[in-house]
Structure formats: structure tokens, C-alpha cells
Write a structure and sequence with these properties.
globular, Serine Threonine Protein Phosphatase 5, Tetratricopeptide repeat, mainly alpha
Length: 153
């Protein structure tokens, strides 16, 4: 028995509309969650300026978790969250916690933006200062050389 054409068209339309609705719901959910991570980061910056460091740590850690969960571990926003958290750890003298975050942020950023991008240079600049403050002159020199290569391009 053959299905009549209007029925097939109606079924196709319903399936199409259903798939569009599902895509829109997913996109809206992801966008809202990204916005949530962004709001957490903004709140952390406010708390940092108010010298409420332990609360700022909590906000940045949560923003990192949200970004990893919703965007995946190699997304540029995850790199940004790691970088901000590394900066906060470094500013509080928590160098052991800061260094791996700087390194991970750099790897992700290079992967997405390329080795000569200005966002890579920003991370390298902070890392060079980090190594200077921690007295690791060998690493500072390596990072500064890499930074100069980017700036000379």
C-alpha cells in the first residue's frame, strides 16, 4: 500500500521542525552555560578587586569546570579560564598550582590560534614574568626567546 504524498510531506515537515527545535534547545542551553561561565569569571574579577581571594578562586574554578563540561577540555574558553586561574594563583604566591595551568592554557591556545598568535604571546608574557618571580631564569629565558620570535613576525 502506498502512503499518500500529503502524509509524507506532513511527516517530513514534523521531523524537520522537531530536529530544528532540538538543535535550538541544545544551542540555547550551551550558550546559556557559556554565559554562566562568563558571569562566574566576571564575578571572580570583582571579588579579586575587593581582595576576596578565596571567593575569587571558587568562582574561577567553577567557571573552568563549566567550560570544560560544556565546551570540552580543549576549547579556547577553557584556555582562558585556566589562564585567569593561573594568574590568580600566581598573584597569591601559589606557584605550584599556577605553573601547570599556564602550561595547559598555552597548549590549548597554540592548538586553536597557532603558535604566532597574539593570544599565545599574552600567555607567554605572563609565563616569563612568572618564571622571573619564581627565580627560574632558564625557563624565563626560553619563554622570552619564544615570545620575541612571535613579536618579530
Amino acid at each position: 500500500m502506498k502512503v499518500k504524498r500529503p502524509f509524507r510531506v506532513a511527516m517530513f515537515s514534523i521531523k524537520f521542525l522537531l530536529s530544528i527545535t532540538i538543535c535550538l534547545l541544545f544551542t540555547t542551553t550551551v550558550f546559556a552555560q557559556e554565559e554562566s561561565a562568563s558571569e562566574l569569571t566576571d564575578k571572580a574579577m570583582e571579588l579579586y578587586q575587593q581582595e576576596k581571594y578565596s571567593e575569587a578562586f571558587k568562582m574561577l574554578k567553577k567557571a573552568l569546570e563549566v567550560n570544560k563540561k560544556n565546551l570540552g577540555p580543549d576549547h579556547p574558553d577553557v584556555s582562558d579560564s585556566m589562564f585567569y586561574l593561573a594568574q590568580l594563583y600566581s598573584s597569591q604566591g601559589k606557584y605550584t598550582e599556577a605553573e601547570p595551568l599556564y602550561k595547559q592554557a598555552l597548549v590549548i591556545r597554540v592548538k586553536h590560534s597557532g603558535p604566532d598568535d597574539s593570544s599565545v604571546a599574552n600567555i607567554l608574557e605572563s609565563m616569563a614574568y612568572f618564571y622571573k618571580v619564581t627565580g627560574n631564569s632558564d625557563e624565563e629565558i626560553k619563554v622570552r626567546e619564544r615570545l620575541e620570535k612571535i613579536r618579530s613576525n
